[in-house]
Amino acid sequence: MFALPLDSKQALIQWLNPCLPTCIALYRRLQFGHFTPGSRLFSSVDFTILTHGKVPSSPWIVAFVDRTCRPETEVWIAASWEHDTPADDSWLPQADDLVRSLLKEISKAEIIPQASSPITGSDKSTSLPADTNGYGSVDRDQYEKHLMNEKVVLLGAVHSSTVAILKRLGLLDSSFVGSDIPYQKYIFDLRNDVVPRSLPPGFVYGKVDPKDYGLVKSRTQIPRQDRTLRKLPSVAIYHEQGGSTASTPIAWGFLGVDASLTTLHVEKDYRGLGLAKSLSLKLFSDHMGAYWQHNPSDEERYAHADVATDNSSSQGVCKSLGGNWYFHVFWIRVDVSQA
Questions:
Q1: Which positions ≥6 away from 51 have C-beta within 8 Å?
Q2: What would the DSSP string read from start to end of 222-255?
Q3: What is the pTM of this model?
Q4: Could you give the 3-state DSSP secondary structure of residue 266?
Q5: Per-residue pLDDT tens listing for the chain (339 residues)
Q6: I need a surface site. Which of 100, 148, 164, 248 has the fewest CB within 10 A?
Q7: How far apart are CA 327 and CA 290, in angstroms?
Q8: CA 275 from chain center: how many Å?
Q9: In terms of Cα–Cα distance, which of 24, 33, 30 is closest to 305?
């Protein structure tokens, strides 16, 4: 397993391009940047010396690791068997070894606290999710439990085939609830220019103001930190009343650190007006270009979203945007000391 310098990220991006859209989460995370002193790149192949588009015939795995992000996603992975699964099982022993080797390297990665990290206790912006939809208490317990155990690592948007390997190796931390919850990976083809929609009369676009982060976090089960929200592209919708614009948004959405459509929400009284679709198109048209190359290839012009299998309303939004469900991904916690 190679530990490679972050300045080789462009070589990795170019090398992974033929594996789009399967590797899109890691691909976009690398493009997003905002790396910290604790950010690391690990790879089973030295892609910096490989010809662009030349993929090894044997199994490979690569990962971006940043443990200062905990308890949010710390690891993003792409592997050969996710994009092109061999017809037989002869590759499984080697894949097992690669996954073990990667987790051993991750276990050595130092957690370097950021000035605003909850580990230091110097920033109170990290708050637990509100108790919404009846799940909040479980999420808060797991959030705190994760923070208190540095051996636990959260791997995000992990392809189902890699999750199967982790399960077979007995590396999932069974003390956490939800590792078996699948999310549908929707891919949006943006090769045609995205045109944002006009809003109904009385509504205007804007951005999410930091003063409203508390509201945003209260409407999601997913723990969000202010330090992360500040980095993310956002679009909000505000209601105009009596000739003035309300100071609090009635709908909002973000592009995550992997450029996924995330934290999309419309307040209850304003649903049914198509605002979620309008928000999504506005995010795509205004902000996806920041991730693409100056002259993007067709393979570059994808967006994506991860939707819980029981979230029919979000699935409907994705379908209305022309999204197609490609595969399942998981957010899983692993005790790297067991690797």
A1: none
A2: S---HHHHTTS-EEEEEEEETTEE-SS-SEEEEE
A3: 0.89
A4: strand
A5: 989 888 889 888 988 988 999 999 999 999 999 999 889 999 998 877 765 556 667 899 999 999 988 888 999 999 999 998 888 888 999 999 999 999 999 998 878 766 544 433 334 444 444 433 333 344 667 777 888 888 899 999 999 999 999 999 999 887 776 677 899 999 999 988 888 899 999 999 999 999 999 999 988 877 788 999 999 999 999 998 777 778 899 999 999 999 999 999 999 999 999 999 999 999 999 999 888 766 777 778 999 999 999 999 999 999 999 999 999 999 999 988 887
A6: 148
A7: 26
A8: 23
A9: 24
Tokens standing for residue 10 = 């462009």
CA 310 to CA 323: how far, in whole Å? 17
Write the single-letter amino acid at 64.
F
Cis peptide before 21 (omega within 30 of 0): yes
Buried b (16+ CB within 10 A) or exposed e, 160-173: ebbbebbeeeebbb
The C-alpha atoms of residue 329 and residue 184 are separated, in whole angstroms, by 6
DSSP secondary structure string, 9-22? HHHHHHHHGGGTTT
Residue of 82, 23, 11 whose CA lies nearest to 52: 11
Residues ≥6 apart with Cβ < 8 Å to 105: 1, 3, 40, 42
CB atoms within 10 A of CB 207: 13
In the three-class reduction of DSSP (H, G, I as helix; E, B as strand; rest coil), residue 155 is classed as: strand
Pick the closest to residue 172 from 332, 10, 5, 289 (CA basis): 332
Instruction: Please give the helix or strand (H or E) that residue 278 lies within, else none.
Output: helix 275-287
**Calpha distance 92→134 (Å, rounded):** 40
Token pair recorded at residue 216:
């945003």
Task: Identify which of 223, 338, 202 has the alpha carbon closest to the alpha carbon of residue 270.
Answer: 202
* Side-chain-side CA neighbours of residue 191 (13 Å): 5
